[in-house]
Write a structure and sequence with these properties.
261 residues, alpha/beta, 3-stranded antiparallel beta sheet
Length: 261
């Protein structure tokens, strides 16, 4: 794996284990201990973990990594998932997008659909989002009407949260919402690491006629801190072909249509 992939792997490992050892980690990743030390020093310099003698421990942000460090993880899967999601969007829809790397890819896939690029008398579609990075990317497209929820921005995810965001969401209806999640379990439902994001995402799901969770297979069957919505509220899951067949069956048993890409 290249350095970017290795840094992502280190962050995943420390997020799951709370602490890692240089020698053991070097053996797992098949690199030298010196390489792991340099990588850990680099991540510590970015305040993503705390260095210790012989290893590192999780910092207060290790469980919720900045968006730029997540972007390359499972990238091919996210692109296939986003392409499948974009095909669900019909002209004239009001579409909700929360934050995260997968949803960012969904926004790009929707925005670049050729049939949405013509300039008519009205926008091809309306996108409602609480993610500043998504709004920034789509605002330059005259065929798409962008509505931003408002709220207080989170540095890690670029999502707007808090009571200001709820004021808008209480007043609108969405045809379709795409939810990026930190975990989705067939019994427990969809979850986010941060309670503020979960609260806004819950509102978006509640205002939508159709709720679609987009998540690569690494997110399935896991759990995170705050629930977004129960499984019964989700109409469809779009994931990648690496999803465990038993897990797919479990979602379908709960009434969720599963699309693999």
């Amino acid at each position: 794996m290249d350095r970017h992939e290795r840094l992502g792997a280190l962050l995943d490992m420390i997020g799951q284990r709370d602490k890692i050892d240089v020698e053991q980690t070097a053996e797992e990743l098949a690199v030298s201990p010196a390489t792991i030390r340099r990588d850990l020093d680099h991540l510590a310099g970015r305040q993503l973990l705390t260095r210790t003698r012989g290893g590192a421990v999780a910092s207060n942000v290790a469980y919720d990594l900045p968006l730029r460090h997540k972007a390359a993880r499972h990238a091919p899967e996210k692109q296939r998932i986003s392409a499948a999601a974009a095909r669900l969007v019909e002209r004239g829809m009001v579409v909700g997008l929360n934050g995260g790397t997968t949803i960012t890819e969904v926004g790009r896939a929707v925005a670049t659909r050729p049939d949405f690029n013509d300039r008519g008398d009205s926008p091809a579609l309306t996108v409602v989002t609480n993610a500043l990075n998504i709004a920034n990317e789509l605002a330059v497209r005259p065929n798409i009407k962008i509505v931003v929820t408002g709220g207080v921005a989170r540095q890690h995810s670029f999502e707007l949260t808090g009571p200001l965001a709820t004021l808008l969401l209480d007043e609108i209806t969405l045809d379709l919402v795409f939810l990026g999640v930190d975990a989705f379990d067939s019994e427990r439902g969809a979850y986010a690491h941060h309670e503020g994001e979960a609260s806004i995402n819950k509102l978006m799901a509640g205002r939508a006629r159709q709720v679609v969770v987009v998540a690569d297979s690494s997110k399935l069957g896991g759990q995170a801190f705050a629930q977004i919505c129960p499984t019964s509220q989700v109409d469809m899951l779009i994931t990648d072909t690496e999803a465990d067949s038993a897990m797919v069956t479990a979602f379908e048993t709960e009434g969720v249509k599963v699309l693999t890409a």
